[in-house]
Write a structure and sequence with these properties.
heterodimer; A: 509 residues; mainly alpha; two-stranded antiparallel sheet; 21 helices; 3 strands; disordered N terminus; B: 180 residues; 7 helices; 64% helix; 1% strand
């Protein structure tokens, strides 16, 4: 590392990968898959990621990351397209785009709306990526100042923040995280040298594996869930109608720099806070933009600013959301958890020293996120007509395909048949948890954080010779314990002084 | 009413699972015990509070906190970010709201597919699963369902060739059962 904290060698290594035709083809393929999944209502890029992840086993890790991030980065534009053309968000994060995108499409300006979404996407991702890179040296200093007790608290506070923002009650979010942590403890512990919770089963020696768990919770459970919901045919109100209209959309974005910058900043910095999802960032940005707009009376009626506000926040959130994961190994969102899973899957050791020990992997993630957004958006615009038709496909026809591909991928990962049963059971459990108000996201983040938390706990106790006071000795530890206490006590105090309650409105995200 | 909620039953079930983790943790020795025991006890306490909340809305209200941009989402013309001034309770899903027959059919078919893979392998179970699912549940025609079934099977065979991995052939055709 140089004095600025940035080493260019891994950057150049990653960029050189992109001169290989096979890698370029894989990135484009990843973009296509991401766009396809993004444009289908109810199916998220996360599902595509989970289905395809096991199939990348054995690939060169940086190439696998480029391919996987290619999918993740492109889904957002697919979702925006769906929101604009048929008023159904491809994913919940695109819900706010419906408010102004669809009215624009109804008055014959679909292509202009797509142009607005496309350029907002590219510029906001660029903004977020630059901020993320700028923060690397700062995060390095913070990471070096942290010890095991601080990392323990970081895992706990990270889970708390995510539980606060999770769908469902806060307590259920925390409990979900606890359950995930417990599941992560099953199997042989290399740190402690003991078998735990295996019931004598050989199959559980390696624990409940990441891949079948992910596949079950996010691919199978979701695929089954949308089988059970009504899927009416949605005909697109309009399709692509010429490059001139597209450039009008670009011009709209360039004439609203304040909206773009403000929304990008909300997305990027909001994304750095664990628990702020893309959906929340989009709605916050939309609300703020409307509040400060001189044309606020046109919001919800096809105001280009509305599309810029929501799409810029959604796309700027992605780089920002990677920062806690890359710096500390703490995923602050589902997307970051997926990337973390991919890193673990390809042999990287996530955590505070990932940037130091595996910089090419980190740069693969950062650069591929930006590249996939740009490539994916351009590709999406070019094939917009075809993609729009796909949005009308009944997703019930895709459910068995997703189930088959998910289970085949799960099996091919380590050729263990029992993994597919784990995935099916995880799918049933995921469906039941969602109906009961428990969040699968906090569950999976608890699972990922469990190892970090236990390792940090164990190291702390060893350093202090089993004196728990070590968790309250240094400034950062005390600060994080204080945050935890303030949030919990504050919430209890606030809620105990409120009267009445209203039933939750169905919300996006 | 409480026992008609899905949440109540799932919480009871989860409490049972976590209790098993508590008992399993007590059987461990030394440093291997602390973290799992602490985590499982904390999780169990959380579940018991949730269960208490199922019976007492007052307890439940203590733990509900959400930042809602309600009026923006419903487009009622408000502006700015509005934190919820009242705790917003999650939507209750009752046992009667869940289409159990459909759920059983869909999950059952997935489980049957897995058992089919175990017995007859991927190349036999996959086309049968896709065909029957699309036909019986998706309402597709025989020709379309058969085409999709064949295409899916072809795709997974091609995938296994590309990855140079063997698809499980099935116990009936002599494939060994992995250790359990």
């Amino acid at each position: 590392m140089d004095a600025a904290g940035l080493d260019l060698a891994p950057v150049l290594r990653t960029l050189s990968l992109l001169t290989r035709p096979d890698v370029i083809a894989l990135v484009i393929l990843g973009n296509l898959i991401g766009l396809l999944f993004g444009v289908l209502p109810g199916i998220s890029g996360g599902q595509a990621f989970v289905v395809v992840l096991p199939l990348t086993y054995g690939w060169q890790p940086e190439v696998a990351i480029l391919f996987l991030m290619g999918m993740l980065g492109a889904t957002s534009f697919g979702g925006a397209m769906c929101a604009i053309l048929i008023n159904v968000p491809g994913d919940t994060q695109n819900a706010a785009t419906c408010f102004d995108g669809y009215p624009m499409a109804r008055r014959g300006e679909a292509t202009r709306a797509l142009g607005i979404a496309a350029l907002s996407n590219i510029l906001a991702t660029s903004f977020g990526t630059v901020v993320l890179i700028a923060f690397f040296p700062i995060m390095q200093s913070i990471v070096l100042a942290f010890g095991p007790p601080e990392f323990f608290w970081l895992a706990v506070v990270g889970l708390l923040m995510i539980a606060l923002a999770a769908h469902g009650s806060f307590l259920k979010g925390l409990v979900g995280g606890g359950l995930g942590m417990l599941l992560g403890l099953v199997g042989f512990s290399p740190v402690l040298g003991v078998n735990r919770f295996t019931g004598g089963r050989d199959f559980l020696f390696d624990g409940i594996q990441l891949v079948p768990l992910f596949v079950g919770l996010f691919a199978i459970a979701q695929a089954i869930d949308f089988c059970l919901t009504d899927t009416s045919d949605n005909a697109p109100v309009a399709t692509f109608s010429g490059w001139r209209r597209l450039f009008e959309g670009f011009s709209d974005v360039l004439h609203a720099p304040v909206v773009l910058l403000r929304s990008s900043a909300i997305g990027t910095f909001g994304g750095m806070i664990p628990g702020i999802g893309a959906t929340a960032a989009a709605f916050i940005s939309y609300a703020v933009s409307k509040h400060f707009s001189k044309t606020r009376h046109l919001y919800h009626r096809g105001n280009p600013e509305g599309i810029i506000a929501s799409e810029a926040a959604v796309n700027a959130k992605e780089p920002g959301g990677l920062l806690p994961m890359l710096a500390f190994g703490i995923p602050g969102s589902l997307e970051a958890a997926l990337v973390l899973a991919a890193l673990i899957f390809h042999g990287a050791q996530p955590g505070p020293f990932l940037i130091r020990d595996n910089p090419s992997m980190v740069w693969s993630i950062v650069l591929s996120l930006w590249i996939s957004n740009v490539f994916g958006t351009v590709l999406g615009v070019v094939i917009a007509n075809w993609l729009a038709r796909l949005a009308t496909v009944k997703v019930v026809y895709l459910a068995p395909l997703i189930v088959v591909l998910s289970l085949v991928g799960t099996y091919l990962w380590r050729n263990n048949l029992w993994d597919i049963f784990v995935a099916v059971i995880a799918g049933v459990a995921g469906y039941a948890l969602s109906k009961a108000g428990y969040s699968a996201v906090t569950f999976i983040i608890g699972y990922l954080l469990g190892d970090i938390a236990e390792r940090a706990f164990f190291q702390s106790m060893q350093i202090s010779q089993n004196n728990p006071a070590i968790f309250f000795q240094r400034g950062p530890s005390i600060a994080m314990a204080g945050i935890l206490a303030v949030v919990l006590v504050g919430m209890l105090w606030r809620n105990s002084h409120l009267r009445g309650a209203v039933p939750r409105q169905p919300v996006g995200g | 009413m409480v026992w008609r909620r899905v949440s109540t039953w799932v919480t009871v079930l989860l409490a049972g699972v976590v209790l098993a983790f508590v008992l399993g943790s007590l059987a461990l020795q030394g440093p291997a015990r602390s973290f799992p025991l602490g985590t499982s006890l904390a999780t169990l306490a959380g579940l018991l509070l949730i269960l208490a909340g199922e019976f007492s809305p007052r307890v439940r209200r203590l733990f509900e906190i959400q930042l809602e941009v309600e009026e923006i989402q419903t487009g009622t013309g408000s502006d700015g970010l509005l934190p919820a001034n009242q705790p917003v309770l999650e939507e209750e899903v009752l046992l009667g709201d869940v289409p159990w027959r459909l759920v059983a059919m869909v999950f059952g078919s997935t489980l049957l597919y897995s058992l089919g893979v175990l017995l007859a392998g991927f190349t036999v179970a996959t086309p049968l699963f896709v065909l029957l699912f699309l036909r019986l549940y998706g309402g597709a025609g025989w020709l379309g369902a058969a085409a999709l079934a064949a295409g899916t099977t072809g795709a997974i065979v091609a995938l296994s060739q590309v990855l140079r991995a063997d698809l499980y052939a099935g116990v009936l055709w002599g494939a060994p059962l992995p250790p359990f």
